[in-house]
Design a protein that fits this description.
232 residues, alpha/beta, Aminopeptidase, seven-stranded mixed sheet, 22% strand, globular
Length: 232
């Protein structure tokens, strides 16, 4: 239930159960409700393969400890284990248990991209070393949809001249594995959490001057979070 609706319902209950209530009491209660803390977990992957620095990890580190409106951001760096997805994914499961977030925004690197890619679908598949396909969760659904308002996120990013698009396929490696696994975990455990995934390109460096500025990617993530907070 949205905070505004909760506040209105609470007023009705108070009026019905108490004969008198002062204006100052109402204002105090309203402020208490409106200041209810929201926690946003932002995860980014660490270095892997030939990528010594992963911009998704830098974004999570940059946002850690900041706030957007009344939402506190917790940034988490997730080590990459491409041979055993479970080891990486379990770290995020533990963070969910530790921080009890309202939202989880996972970020990963799409090195060949030049735009922000907001994912909508997680697939219950991963590619094995012999190129065969295996289901991530044996008895899980074939696919799961992120509840995030992806098209609205992309529209807001483009308003700020940040290249971006909605993606319906995030590959079949660890990024997709985390997206699907979190959506599955949230559903089967009946958690009141909304989760999704963002792919970012390589960040601009002296060696790669044609890539995207890290500041742009951080700002894009903030916009995406803000859109989600406003939407829900």
């Amino acid at each position: 239930m949205k905070i505004k609706n909760l506040f209105l319902l609470s007023i009705v209950i108070i009026v019905l159960t108490h004969s008198t209530i002062t204006t100052s009491q109402l204002i105090q209660y309203k402020n208490t409700v409106e200041e209810e803390q929201i926690t946003v977990l932002v995860t980014g992957f660490g270095p892997f393969s030939k990528f010594d620095i992963n911009p998704s990890e830098l974004i999570a580190e940059e946002l850690n400890g900041t706030t957007i409106n009344n939402a506190e951001i917790v940034g988490l760096a997730v080590p990459v284990n491409l041979s055993n997805f479970t080891e990486s994914i379990e770290i995020v499961y533990q963070a969910i248990e530790d921080y009890n977030p309202d939202y989880v925004f996972s970020i990963g690197l799409a090195a060949g991209e030049d735009k922000i890619r907001v994912e909508k679908i997680g697939y219950n598949f991963k590619v094995e070393t012999d190129s065969s396909l295996e289901r991530i969760i044996p008895n899980g659904r074939w696919l799961r949809l992120s509840p995030f308002p992806v098209l609205k996120m992309v529209r807001e990013l483009r308003k700020e001249n940040i290249p971006s698009y909605m993606s319906l396929y995030g590959g079949l490696s660890l990024c997709n594995g985390l997206l699907y696994s979190l959506l599955h975990h949230i559903d089967v455990n009946d958690l009141k959490i909304k989760s999704g995934f963002i792919h970012v390109p390589m960040h601009k460096t002296e060696e790669k001057p044609d890539k995207m500025e890290l500041e742009t990617m951080v700002n894009a993530t903030k916009i995406i979070i803000q859109v989600c907070l406003d939407f829900y």
